[in-house]
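Translate sequence into structure tokens.
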Amino acid sequence: MKKVLGIGGSPRRGGNTDILLEQILRGVVSGGVIASEIQLRDYQLQPCIGCERCRIDKTCTSLQDGMQLLYPGLLEARGIVLVSPVYNYNITAIMKIFIDRLYPFYNFSDERPGPWTSRLAGQGRKALVAAIGEQVSFDEGGMDLTL
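Result follows.
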């Protein structure tokens, strides 16, 4: 059965980001797909240190933190939903850390700078990205930057 993993990037419990993610996942479930929710605020995540060991190991082996608990669910999911509030015209720090820690899912050539591919590509996976903020337009520096 297909599974979708919803990932919330708000540090605030019960706010608009949580409501938006809940509604999106409700729609996923109504379509007959299994959905689970992860709130990044419930995990201790360290920022990527740029050691690039994951280029060889295909997983982050330098940092032992909450991402080790999230990697299996990411591999299992056929869909991912990322939702973040707008903080200072961008995603939250915890969402940025999470995205940076997805680096192990890339395949790189030895050439620098060189081409790269995703280990998750070509498998029929889907992604949805959503943000919520008080900006009233998509002008430069508004929601467009966040998304």
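Note: The two ends are 29 Å apart (CA to CA).
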